Amino acid sequence: KITFGGMPFSGKPSSNSRKNFKGCMESINYNGNNITDLAKRKKLEPSNVGNLSFSCVEPHTVPVFFNATSYLEVPGRPSQDLFSVSFLFRTWNPNGLLVFSNFADDLGNVEIDTSEGKVSVHINVTQVKKNRIDISS
């Protein structure tokens, strides 16, 4: 027998504690067979202990590939004075625009880019004397 996600009650764990897996697993393949798909379609009779479901409650991260001319534009949040963004990225190009957003009421914009391999944040404010704030890695 082979188990995924923890130790069955009938098994002999190496310690007295039962610290079974809590989370999501996808595409469990064993000897060329997709175990998760077979169990979901009831072509395999898994014995399970606890709450087993064929869905993940945590959101999946979806990678997006951009070429030199592509971009993704999403609507902002009107009437909000907060701007928050987080992302993971990988690139082979030393220069490129990562994020750009205009502020409401033509008050300026924020730009996050890579320049010579360094990440920079530029905040342009149109209503003040010092109209550009730069932060660089």
UniProtKB/TrEMBL annotation:
Name of this chain's protein: Contactin-associated protein-like 2
Domain Laminin G: 1-56
